Structure formats: C-alpha cells, structure tokens
Amino acid sequence: MALTLRGLEVCLVVVLLSIFGGIQGEEESVITLDHSNFTDFVSKHDFIFVEFYAPGCGFCKTLAPEYEKAASILKKNDPPITLAKFDAFEAVNKPIARLYKVSGFPTLKILNNGGKNVQDEYNGPRKADDLVKYVQKQLGPASVEIKSTNDAASVIDLAKSFIVGVFPEFSGEEYENFTKLAEKLRNAYDFGHTLDAKILPRGDLSVKGPLIILFKPFDDLFADFKDFDITAMEKFIVKEDDPSVTVFNMDDPGNPYISRFFSDRNLNTKVTMILNFASDNAATLKSKFYDIAHILKGGKISFLLSDLEPNNERLLKFFKLDGSLVPLIYIQGNGGKKYLKANVEDDQVVPWFKKFMDGKIEEFIKSEHIPQENNEPVKVVVLKNLQDMVFNSGKEVLLEFYAPWCGHCKKLAPILDEVALSYQNDPNVLIAKFDATANDVPSDKFGKVASYPTMYFISSNKEMIKYTEGRTKEEIINFIQKHRHDDEKEMDEPVSLTDEL
Ligand SMILES: *[C@@H]1O[C@H](CO)[C@@H](O)[C@H](O)[C@H]1NC(C)=O
Ligand SMILES: *[C@@H]1O[C@H](CO)[C@@H](O)[C@H](O)[C@H]1NC(C)=O
C-alpha cells in the first residue's frame, strides 16, 4: 500500500514537473552562445545583435524579459534578425568578451559582416520596443525618403530631433554628402530626405533645396542650413540639437540631453534649478531661468531644470543638497567650485545670476555646523573644522569618511568606539568621523572618496596614509602604533589594551 502511494507521489511529481517543464521549455527566441560556438555562429551571420551579460548583474536581469520579447518580434522580421546572449563573466568566455571590448554589463552590440564590423555599443532605453526600433533602423537606410504628408507624420517623431535634407533631385554632391553624414551619424540622429518641403511639419516651406532642416522639440523648434560640407553639417547639427534648458527626469534614463549635461565633455559651467513644479511661483521661476539660458546659450554654460518629485530625489542626493533648500539654483563651475542660491525667490533669480557672472558670489562649501558638544569617544569632524582638528592639531588622526545609510559603516562604528576608548588617555591620538554626505570632502587632499567607509591616517607630521587593513580593533590599533609619528611609537600597547588582559 505504502509503495503504491509512493508511486503515486512520484507520478504526481513527474506530472507537475512536465507541466512546469512545459512552460519553461517554451522555446527561447534569444540564442545562447558561449566560447565553444560564438565565433562560428557569428561568422555565419551578416547581422546579429548580441547581449554580453553577467549572471549576477541587476540591469541584465531587468533587461532579460524585454530582450526576449524583442527577439521574438525580430525573428519574425523579414529577413529574420537574430538576437543572442553571451555570458561574458564566465572565465572561459572572457577572452571573447575582451575581444569585443566589453567593459560593463549589459553591453549590447550589433555585429555585422560575420562579426568583422562591430558597431558602437547601444546605450539607448532597454524596453523591447526601443530595442526593436533600434535594430530595424540599423538594417534600413540611414536616411529614409519622405514622399507624402503621411510619411512625414509617421517618420518624424516631433518629440525628438529629426534632420531632413530637401533636394531638387536625389543626386549631386550635396545629396551624396548628406547621405554620407547620415550614415556616419545614424546611431545618434534620425535622418530623412525629400523632394517636397511642403509636406514637412511646421511651416509651408516652398524651398526647392538643397537645404537641411533640423526639427527639434525645444527652443525655436527648427533650424535650417545650406552648407553641404560634411564637417560643417555635423557642426550645425550638434550646435542646433542642444536645448538651452534640459529638463531632468529620472524616468528617462536614455535621454541624450540629460547624459550630455552630466558627461561634461566641454567642461561647461552647469546650472541646475530645482523647484516644485506644482508651487504657485513655479511658472515665474521657470521663465526667468529660461530667459537666462536663452541669453547665455552658446557659451560654455549648460542649464538643467528639475521638478522636486520623489523619483528625482537622486538628483538632490547627487548634489548633496536637502529638499528644504528648494527652490534652488545650484552651479557647478568648471574649476570644481560650487555655488548655491537656496530658497530663491522670483525677483532674485536674475540679479543673483548677474552677480554670479560678475564673480561676486561666494563659493558654496557644504559643511555641517561645528558641533557644540563633541564628547563621544569618536570625535565628529565637519568640513568647517577639518583643518583645525585634523591637519593643524599636531595629533595622530584616524579619520573615517562615512555615510549614515552605509551598512559597513554601522558595523565599524562600535569597533572605532573601542579603538577610541583605548586611546582615551593618549592626548596625541584622535579617532574621528566625517559624514561625507553632509560635508564636501576636499578632493585636493583625499581624492575622490568613492566608497564608505573610507579611512585615512594623518600623522602629526601631516603624512597621509589610506587605511586598507582589516577592520578589527586590534588591526586598527596595530596600524596606528606602526604609523604614528610621535615618540609614543616605541612604547608598549596603549594602557587600556593591557587592562583588558
Ligand atoms: C552554444 O553552446 C552552448 C553550451 O554548450 C549551448 O547551450 C548553446 O545552445 C550553443 N549555441 C548554439 C547556437 O549552438
Ligand atoms: C562635400 O563634402 C566635402 C568634404 O566635406 C567637401 O569638400 C565638399 O565641398 C562638399 N560638397 C558640397 C557641394 O558642399
């Protein structure tokens, strides 16, 4: 009896497994490749889209269902397009990943001509639709012909920039130059060409061409140009496709204008206004901000505008600013200096900005107030007293840079307390902590503090050593004893240590 029941159980498990297996086994559209078959498979394809991923990477996991969906759509394309994935983290696969210059995950690249041509990495949004559009666009011509008003409406997305060449005929040097440029910039911009300017949106242009029109979703909404020298055209496009004010939006990670603002290619001065778009004076503040941006457009200065909403809070955090300061104008100067106008009022925007341009605004230094009491074993250092407490104190200082939210810092805190207690009778040693989210870390001294906790030992003769030893009380004390510069170096362990024994 028992045996039969067992048999039944096994049976059920088998049934369940096969149902589960049935769902799981539904054929994947994404092709899996590894070191054993990558080169062979790629060499047999003229066009293949590859995701180089790492199994543990969060962005890769988010991408997976979208990528699969895109693959299932694109394999029905005419001709079918193959999407493949390659675990670039697996040791045996790494040589191939290196060959394709994979440096982050996921890396998405189109390989053409049996893998001989490798296109630039795809950096756009990662929803299935976006991926499909991107891939299809790579297959087609770099510039599409616009024959009718309907064509124009379906091809030109007025929410983005779009470049149209108007020609009396599709031949001649102007047309050829335009086509070459479209090919060169196909990943960055959308291009079209037409014989009839009248079918284009925004205006009844009766021009015959040759003429280039750039449609854009901001400022003057379009601009035109008549020089068909390739370099000149490219310059025109880059210059015109540059909004005087970029609107920040955390939900739009692929937005090219936002990444351009932060990527700092031109070492611009960057001006950000953060305000609550729902507040009464939002419209006035915004329009003053736009006024300034329009006047200064073209100079080495860029403008970003952001609504104070929960999703955008990362922007405040990034600038180490607090929501209570909003509405605010924050300026990152090209020399690394910062300037802040907090709680800015309508009639202060323009005058404050004029003062800034005249060099009359004092640099903004982010520091907490110097604490009135500092009685805990580990002393609190803020930017305002960093010089006095650390560099000019003549002490042997162990300084921890921490963030209140950091788990490793919380673990380290009681250990640092113990270390500090061990030295409580040694006036020459100071154990201190510095909240790096509430105070600027002077990069001239400490470089970029990229992770927490980061600890530095600054000896009484101002020698600085980054602490990279273990995080136990003993290891820290040993380190201090080894590196302290004063006479105590030769002495025994600190008193309280021996007390414990
Ligand atoms: C490549 O090899 C892996 C591992 O053997 C396999 O899972 C995968 O299906 C193969 N891909 C192709 C296209 O043959
Ligand atoms: C086409 O481009 C080349 C190279 O930029 C330039 O020398 C030539 O003058 C251009 N032709 C026209 C008609 O602008």
TrEMBL record:
Domain of life the protein comes from: Eukaryota
EC identifiers of the protein: 5.3.4.1
Localisation per UniProt entry: Endoplasmic reticulum lumen
InterPro entries: Prot_disulphide_isomerase, Thioredoxin-like_sf, Thioredoxin_CS, Thioredoxin_domain
Catalytic activity: Catalyzes the rearrangement of -S-S- bonds in proteins
Pfam families named in the record: Thioredoxin, Thioredoxin_6
Signal peptide (from-to): 1-25
Family: Belongs to the protein disulfide isomerase family.
Protein name stated in the entry: protein disulfide-isomerase
